[in-house]
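Researcher: Structure prediction, please.
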Amino acid sequence: MSRLRIPTALAAVLLATTVLVAGCDSGDDNGDGASAAARAAPPASDFPAPNGRTLEQLVTGSASSRGPVVSPAAKVLNVGENRFPFGVFTVEQEPITDAEVAIYAAPRGVKGPAEGPYPARIESLETESAFRAESTAQDPDAAKVVYVSEVPLARPGKWAFAALIKEGDSYSGTLLPTPSLAGQFDPVGVGDQAPRVSTPTASDVAQISEIDTRVPPGTMHDEDLQDVLGKKPVVLLFATPALCQSRICGPVVDIAEQVKRDHEGEDIAWIHQEIYNDNDLQKGARPQVEAYRLPSEPWLYVIDRDGKVSTVIEGAFSVQELERAVQRVSAPS
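Model: Predicted structure follows.
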């Protein structure tokens, strides 16, 4: 893999997602800079059952023919359960921050039988102000929230997706760009033994900026993965705050720094791994990214004390999501 490439349509989608959250005023910050809890998904009963209809029929049969745009914010689709993140915005790319949305899926394209609904929760990407990097705070497109549905895909290959947005007593519908084929990519996953690779530490470089594009640099460069894997839990975050094509790497590194603080004194390794050789897009992915077979960024891996992957998240995640993942591996065995 010479370079992590997000398809043009998906790159626009991810940027639109960051535009979605830039003006968010939905209670994500409680006034003292603290991170906010997720907004729960509406019940599935709030959305129409497919009843044998196709995705195309669901969308064209909705009350509004020109609804908001709903676009995926991750690239990899798995056979089985999928954490399906996305953004919601108007056709003019104005943010919609309080939408009630459900995703529908269909094998074989938009004329396939629709499955769902899979309602979405809204996860906040806010942190306490002390953990908000300068590079995040000064980025007008840095993400603040992400919509997330849990979507099961029963078979490999082509799937199509649609969304219905609840608007009072009616719905508007939209078809989604498909990020990839289900099973097309094979990154290291939950239950796999984590690849034992060396990750650079602060003591390996003359300047920390060589291995961290965050401003200021973070604190997750003290331990080498190959030295700690299988000995203690590990939080391994692949992200490049300055070069991220999706504009969410900065916020998720901030989130990891905050959760790391909350687990101070516990025997957990916290490792932030940059994406590109010499922090240069033109020089391709670093060998650690290649070893985990990652086609995009950012990616979070939480690994248990036996070296087995416990949690994997592609894209944006909240303080609460990371906290739950860490608790699963930090509990006494």
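Model: Confidence is low (pLDDT under 50) at residues 1-32.
Researcher: Thanks, that helps.
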